[in-house]
Amino acid sequence: MPSHSRSSHSSSNHTQVHHTVPDIITYRLDEALVYVRPSTNYKEAISLAIKEYPSELGNISPRRITFTIQASMNGTRRTVRISESAWEKSISTMVKGEVIAIEILPEITITTSATVDAPPPKYIADKLSDSECSPTSTSSDEPRSPEGLAATTESTNRSSVHSRPSSPGLRQLCPSFKRVTFLSR
Fold it and tell me: What pLDDT does 10 receive?
């Protein structure tokens, strides 16, 4: 009597589907197609794309190169990007010759109007006469000139975070004070 070998899973209701990586897939960049032997390693797949499209991808940072496929979702064809973490699993479910589009992410450039070493901005105030802005005395002996106001406010703010400084505002000290103009950075 011939011996039949059976898997222990064959009598169960579950069937295991083992996916294998196809022998060949198709890379597509714009309208250019090329057959490649796929790698299950994402970084190697990126390197292979650069090798196959050297003039288009040679000067592009590998971080900007991505892969997408067309997938059917609820009856609608959608473009789906394949992340590095899903690459190996995605490749193992593809059919021979399946098309993987190569896309280039836009370069992110951060520009600022000032550098870190730039000096602080400069301001110019309307010139006030001595009679318009002279120290005044109040119940305390603290100076009330614009120069003294900053020192008074700073010391008051240090002593109590929740209390308002008792010193008057610049407009109260100098009613004719009209504007401060930003000059440059």
Answer: 41
